[in-house]
Design a protein that fits this description.
Elements (H helix, E strand, L loop, with lengths): L2 E4 H13 L4 E5 L3 E2 L2 H12 L3 E6 L6 H7 L5 E5 L7 E3 L3 E5 L3 E2 H6 L3 E6 L3 H17 L1 E2 L1 H29 L7 E7 L6 E5 L6 H8 L8 E3 L6 E4 L7 H6 L2
Parallel strand pairs: 2-4, 3-8, 4-5
Antiparallel strand pairs: 1-9, 2-6, 5-10, 6-7, 7-9, 11-12, 13-14
């Protein structure tokens, strides 16, 4: 059942949504100046490799706020200059509110909102579809992606050097995440060969290839087949990714 929220309760529920996220948390707010306690919570789930998606207005994002966000390794920052909605959710709960994720709004404004849960089948589902639409149509921040690319590039150089050294000394070759065991299409869940570089069945790969968005939200883990939030860029649930199955 939906629950009414005033300003303090809305902020408390947003903190709870961050704390209880299993795979990802989405923060949609035109104006941002994340309060320090909430930023600390985001840093905590970031260390747990929880995906953090933030959608805001680019023109209103201050440099110091962006610097704070860039401390999050699993951040995906997106922009929508027409954004006016305020919505915060994880896999099972969502707050829709007049509250911007801004210190001033939290401390000074009189706000209202509602809390929805996945048990509120139709309402939660409809709200989630609209929120995911906002996310998928917002423009990705290239500067954050470039920072991550440089980190990954450096990691790959180190890994390749280690593999080359290991090959010279032991004769062993690099093990990839392509295996002979079956995998699952991250969009429809059907059985396909396990290959984390190609986690979609042929039919849905053709659809994906029309837009080629590696972060487009999908529905299944490529490795275990469980229903969860994934993408072509991150085709596994946290459990499978950590265990290296």
């Amino acid at each position: 059942m939906a629950k009414f929220l005033n300003t303090s309760k809305a902020y408390a529920e947003i903190e709870d949504i961050v704390d209880k996220a299993k795979n990802k948390v989405v923060l949609i707010s035109p104006y941002l100046k994340i309060p320090s306690p909430l930023l600390a919570r985001l840093k905590h789930i970031d260390r747990e490799n929880i995906r953090i998606i933030v959608v805001c207005r680019k023109g209103d994002l201050k440099d110091d706020v962006k610097d704070d966000l860039k401390q999050l390794r699993n951040l995906e920052l997106r922009f929508d200059e027409n954004l006016h909605a305020k919505c915060f959710y994880n896999e099972t709960s969502m707050v829709i509110t007049s509250l911007n994720l801004h210190e001033y709004s939290q401390q000074n404004n009189r706000e209202m909102g509602i809390l929805l849960n996945s048990t509120d089948d139709n309402i939660f589902s409809e709200a989630l579809n609209e929120a995911e639409y906002i996310v998928s149509n917002a423009q990705k921040d290239s500067t954050v992606r470039n920072v991550l690319s440089e980190v990954m590039k450096g990691a790959k150089t180190i890994l390749d050097s280690a593999v080359e050294e290991d090959s010279r000394t032991t004769g062993r070759t690099r093990i990839t995440r392509r295996t002979s065991k079956p995998g699952f299409c991250i969009r429809c869940g059907t059985s396909i060969p396990h290959d984390t570089d190609h986690p979609l069945c042929d039919e849905h790969y053709k659809t994906w290839a029309q837009y080629k968005d590696p972060d487009y939200p999908e529905k299944y883990c490529h490795t275990c087949g469980k229903k969860t939030s994934t993408s072509k860029a991150e085709p596994e649930c946290n459990s499978c990714h950590r265990s290296g199955k």
